[in-house]
Amino acid sequence: MMSFVTKYIGVHAVILGLLLAQAISCNVTGVWRNELGSVLHIEAVGSELRGLYQSAVETAPGVTGPEQQAKLLGVISNRGLQTSVAFSVLWEAGSCSSWVGQCFQLPDGKRVLKTLWMLRSVASCPADNWKSTRMGEDTFIFVS
Question: Are 15 and 8 in contact (CB under 8 A)?
Fold first, then answer.
């Protein structure tokens, strides 16, 4: 007669095996577009991400630069069930943005990059520090 612990471990081993069999590495290299129309050009080289971020929005005119784009640097990990990413850009006016999230390969073959972001704007003085950080989320869809 099997003990409760043996059954419990056996059931969870089967479930974990099914989950691992369904884990699909998600290739992040390419062009991505988010819900606001910003475009992300990423190249994964080993565990590093490089590319350009073309912003469709600005907090004030000109803060992202004349072409509203910035160089992107980051890291990637394929060690878990899904591909994890973290990347940052430094904007023309001195503010910086960072995203962290996961890339998911969907059953229909499409890829989606779900991220949380933080934008740190330049504070003119310590008293303005409280209003210099914004946070949100972006969903990027793979374009090409």
Answer: no
- What pTM was computed for the model? 0.79
Task: Give the chain's end-to-end CA distance (angstroms, integer).
Answer: 56
134 strand-pairing partners: 119
Question: pLDDT tens digit string along 7-57?
Answer: 556 544 444 444 443 556 799 999 999 999 999 999 999 999 999 999 998
CA distances to 33, 34, 58, 88 from 112, in Å? 10, 10, 24, 19
Name the β-bridge partners of 138.
115
Q: Pick from 99, 102, 111: which is nearest to 80 by CA? A: 102
> Which residues of 7-68 form beta strands (DSSP E)?
30-34, 39-45, 48-54
Query: Is 105:24 a contact under the CB 8 Å cutoff?
Result: yes
